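Late entry, evening session. Most of the bench is empty. Finally got around to the prediction I had been postponing all week. Sequence below, unchanged from the version circulated by S.P.
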Amino acid sequence: MEVIIQPNHHQIASIAANIIRDAILKKPNLVLGLATGSTPIELYKILVRMHRDDGLDFSDVTTFNLDEYVGIPLDHPQSYHTFMAHHFFDHVNIPKANQHIPQNISDNHEEFCASYEEKIVCAGGIDIQILGIGTDGHIGFNEVSSSLASRTRIVTLSQSTLEANAIHFNCDVNAVPQMALTMGIATIMEAKKCLLLACGTSKSQAIAKAIEGPITSMVPASILQMHPNTVTIIDEAASSMLSEVEYYNRSYANMLSL
């Protein structure tokens, strides 16, 4: 795992955006796995600017989102369909047919989840998967104790996730949907490259466990230690509980000098 530590959120997003831009220039029909939440918003802003100002072309890109709530309409202000339209899809030229987000109003969740997995395979697999991390170490909505071999499925959200997401529902934890559809951990691990982004001291313990702790279902992100091409990009606050910061900084400096 490559660990890149930066002073602030903007520089994290800039490095991630440059990785994605370079990948699209090399492979215009890139398959991109997308995440929601506050962390990737700055990344999407930079990619939108690259499209608008530099002509970065997304017309052949295909996207698959990690997750979506169950039980709220697609056009709900806090649905991830709405989030992605507002922050990204409405501002770049990814064809609507190439945008895939788990369907939160499916009558048959099991059938939908199987078809979502099949669509990823038919697209050639995900080239780059963007990931955030929960304060308890979850990725996507793969909560603590999720099987490390899990696939796209319906899950119940943990109390800590409900409380963390309540800020988006007028701070009413009872308004947060109790369930979600999520890509599984094994699905995420099949991406050719993972970009894990994290900011702030609230993520520092989860980051330390994910990068330097044992691989365990109690910290789902720790499975990324087994991924052959994961780049973790974090700010100094999120790195504050890591024991090998000097080594990570020196390693990144050496990579830049090549």
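Two things to note before I forget:
The chain has one domain: 2-257.
The first strand starts at residue 2 and ends at 6.
Will write this up properly tomorrow.
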